Amino acid sequence: MTDVSVPTDMSTIYAPTVSTTTVTPPATARDVAVLAAITTTVLAWASAFVVIRWAGESFSPGALALGRLALGSAALGALLLARRRWVAPNRREWVLLGVCGVAWFAVYNVALNAAEQHLDAGTTAMLVNIGPILIALLAGVMLGEGFPRWLLVGAAVAFAGTVLIGSAASRSGDVDLLGVVLAVLAAVTYAVGVLAQKPVLRRLPALQVTWLACAVGTLGCLPWTVSLVERGR
Hints:
By secondary structure, the chain is mainly alpha-helical. Helix content is 73%, strand content 0%.
């Protein structure tokens, strides 16, 4: 008679198999929309430096800023009317919108336009790129967003690139100190504007926030109305 051995530990027979394969969730429509928005913003922002350099030969920094902001306010206002969605800002949100409009839309544009009359478009763009570094660091402190490791690594790399370009320009003897100061001013006011805008976007629609800030910036640049009209003839 043949002996049949039966395992005493039944878990060896019925032990579940655990898969270690990571399943990547499919991209949603929201992910695609966010990626498209980021790509469009980067391309439009990058091309603006070249156009500003070219237009700066015909317009003063303030007049150029006023013209751009007036056109932007008109276009955004038309879109806002078509959407027919409005959320009344509270007192705190009005203050933040004012800070955003003055800092990011008015001062930033005038300073950037003036900087490009002293520096080439590429150098100006690299110097203004310290703006995102300031935003990341200040958001970690002021908005409680923290300091992830890769954020700090990216900020360090970006800052090192800015320093490298600045030092190369200074060695070439073509650097204009006033242009550098204006570009840094543009970066700082850009960071201030973004930080002021972030809390407002938690409740107000993005289109409305952008239009209001652009309108505030337009009002801030009205002193250059005569210059814009004269140059536009």
